[in-house]
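[job 0412] stage=complex_fold ligand=magnesium ion status=START
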Amino acid sequence: MTESRTPILSPDAETIAAAAETLRAGGLVAFPTETVYGLGADATNETAVAAVIAAKGRPAINPLIVHLADADAARHEAHFDDRAERLAACFWPGPLPLVRRRRADSALAAAISAGLETVALRVPSHATALELLRAVGRPIAAPSANRSGRISPTTAAHVSHELGDAAAMILDGGPCAIGLESTVVGFHRGRPVLLRPGGIAWEQLAAVVGDWAVAGETPSPSSPGQLASHYAPDKTLRLNALETGQGEIFLGFGPCGPGGTGGHNLSPDGDLIEAAANLFAMLRRLDAAPGQAIAVAPIPEDGLGRAINDRLRRAAARP
Ligand code: TXA
Ligand code: MG
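[job 0412] stage=complex_fold status=DONE, emitting structure tokens
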């Protein structure tokens, strides 16, 4: 993987205006969100959406998340009921796509929904993402700006490595604050379902709406992107490791720190928010370091730990 020649630009007013113009003309722009970097296209332009899917090498069965400037724009594209309204009121702008039934008159490209009757909508909280959305005046479809099946980018340099020259420009917002993808929530007969654990802990969502449906109750696959093997580095991963074996490098967490060389720890203080923000960048670094495999310390399965463990399990699974 080599660095692309795509310009990496600081998102001042002039650059945002140029990025908006590129998107309106059907081009692709990579931009930061609070979770990970996205590869954006005008969500109402069928050809631009097809270009994003092709650039990622993404299977056509995997639908895209649509980013909007505010909840009103989201209500134009899909039907909202009381529970969806409550979640949106509490967590937008923020890392929470809500999967809702599309309106018959939605202007969104068909390819976004990959044949489903629903669409995943979110209002991001990152200032640059919001400025770009307002400048474009249209919804932006943006999957994570990585090649399909790879680790999501949390810096502009990662995007440059991942997607070569697919984007016309990369807006540089520095490292993403959350560092894990958003929490995708669907609905089954009106009850919310966790489709992808992510940047908002499920416990926070459950404090606002109760009565969640569980996976087995929903027709499968409820979220086509949730394949067992995903987010994969090149090296093999061994989870819940307490020490390193032959040829392994250690990725620690809390007091279960690196035994010996390297010094990689997701959060020496055992803070899951810090661990989430470090996860993808550290996996990338260890993937490029000498050694055959990565041994990862146990991560508690609560709060953001649920999403961290989800990504680690998928990274450990081999196709
Ligand atoms: O944090 C994020 O959400 C980032 C930033 C850029 O916003 N985007 C992102 O997009 O992670 P992507 O395309 O890499 O992941 C989208 C996820 C997939 O798991 C997909 O299956 C699910 O959302 N999804 C999208 N539309 C859906 C739908 N209509 N029904 C069920 N799942 C859907
Ligand atoms: Mg992705």
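Residues 33, 35-36, 38, 62-65, 95, 97, 99, 113, 116, 118-120, 142-144, 181-182, 184, 186, 195-196, 223-226 surround threonylcarbamoyladenylate (ligand 1) (CB under 6 Å).
[job 0412] exit 0
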